[in-house]
Amino acid sequence: MKEFETPVFKMIIHDNLIKEVKVKANQTLTEKDVWESRDLSDSYKPNAKFFVLIEGEDNTSVSFAARDAAASEEYSKNVAALALHSKKPLDTIMGNLFLKIKRPKVPTKFFEDRQKAMEWLTELANK
């Protein structure tokens, strides 16, 4: 297991290649942060495909450019699956809208229950 921390997010990469990205309170995840998380992951486990969970602490947001980057073919080269988690009603609406409009290149689901998100990623990682 490896942990990384930037001013905007904390990231844990588990031995089974599940990658947890938690946006810190009062921060906005930007496109730059998406690529930084990818680069940090790749430096730790070159050419691996990660099972990614993205969630936020209180009062966080994700920029439209960050959403575009996360749904891009380039970002998807290092991602096997993407789980989005939030309990906030607005995030639920925006997350599901993101899935319908951007159509990520890898299996992607939005979860209101963090445990179910981790179970889904673990099941995919163990295949």
Characterize the structure shown.
The protein has 127 residues and is of the alpha/beta class. The protein contains 5 helices and 8 strands. It has a 6-stranded mixed beta sheet, sandwiched between helices. A two-stranded parallel sheet has the order 4-6. The chain is globular.
Q: Keywords for this structure?
A:
127 residues; alpha/beta; 6-stranded mixed beta sheet; two-stranded parallel sheet; 5 helices; 8 strands; 29% strand; globular
What does this entry show, briefly?
The chain has 127 residues and is of the alpha/beta class.
What is the secondary structure topology, with strand pairs?
Elements: E1 2-5, E2 9-13, E3 18-23, E4 28-29, H1 31-44, E5 50-56, E6 61-62, H2 64-70, H3 73-76, E7 79-85, H4 89-102, E8 108-111, H5 114-125
Parallel strand pairs: 3-5, 4-6, 5-7, 7-8
Antiparallel strand pairs: 1-2, 2-3
Helix pairs in contact: 1-2
Oligomeric description of these chains? single chain
Radius of gyration: 13 Å
Order of strands, widest sheet: 1-2-3-5-7-8
Poorly predicted runs are none
Number of strands: 8
The portion of residues forming beta strands comes to 25-35%
SSE string: EEEEHEEHHEHEH
Structural class based on helices, strands and sheet pairing? alpha/beta
Q: Distance between termini?
A: 20 Å
Largest sheet, if any?
6 strands, mixed
Give the overall shape, derived from the CA principal axes. globular
| SS element count, helices | 5
Average pLDDT, rounded to a whole number, is 89
What level of helicity do the residues show? 40-55%
